[in-house]
Amino acid sequence: MSCGKHRNFLRKKLDPAALGDLLRRLRPLKTAATISAETGLSLRTVENLIGSNPSLPGLRTLLALVDAYGPEVLAALYVQPPAWMDAAARAAIRANFEHERAAARRRRAEQDGRGGTDFKAGVFTW
User: Fold this and answer.
1) Is the CB of residue 92 less than 8 Å from the CB of residue 70?
2) Residue 28 CB: number of other CB atoms within 10 A?
3) How far is CA 9 from CA 49, 57, 74, in A?
4) Domain map of the chain by residue range?
5) What are the DSSP calls for 25-58, one per residue?
6) How many CA atoms lie within 13 A of 25 on its CB side?
7) Nearest in space to 22 (alpha carbons), one of 49, 56, 61, 53
8) Under 8 Å between Cβ of 65 and 27
């Protein structure tokens, strides 16, 4: 199989613009700089992923993104992800949500223990 045929096959299966959309949703502020810092990828590489004419990421880039953000990256890249990939991405999203919710509960418990606002009573306690 020639490289050209293989490339056309990938272009039908993969959507680099959807990957850029995901990265912008994950890091809406200073997207390129933040993702570059979190993944170790160059700023220019990240800008190429999220720009108006994004390119397919190379293997090193893709692995860095998956390592940093999980299987959701792979699922976002596919036009129609395989069922197993979609399930893995959904499970990772749920796990991240549960992690964030638990962290919010811990922060709230810490605030309750050292003062804060008692909204029911309408008073401040410090």
Assistant:
1) yes
2) 9
3) 20, 15, 17
4) 3-114
5) HH--SSHHHHHHHHH---HHHHHHHHSSS--PPP
6) 10
7) 49
8) no
Residue 45 in tokens:
């590489």
What is the full per-residue pLDDT of the chain (126 aa) written as tens digits? 345 566 666 667 888 899 999 999 999 999 999 999 999 999 999 999 999 888 889 999 999 999 999 888 988 888 888 788 878 888 888 887 788 888 888 888 888 876 555 555 555 444
C-alpha 47/C-alpha 108 separation (Å) is 37
Fill in the amino acid letter for 66.
Answer: V
- Tokens, residue 115: 């003062």
CA distance 10 to 51: 19
- Architecture of the domain delimited by 3-114: Orthogonal Bundle (1.10)
- Asked if residue 92 lies in contact with residue 71, where contact means CB atoms within 8 angstroms, the answer is yes
In single-letter form, the type of residue at position 21 comes to: D
The model carries a pTM of 0.68
Residue from 27, 97, 34, 39 nearest 64 by CA = 39
Residue 98 CA to residue 77 CA, distance in Å, equals 24
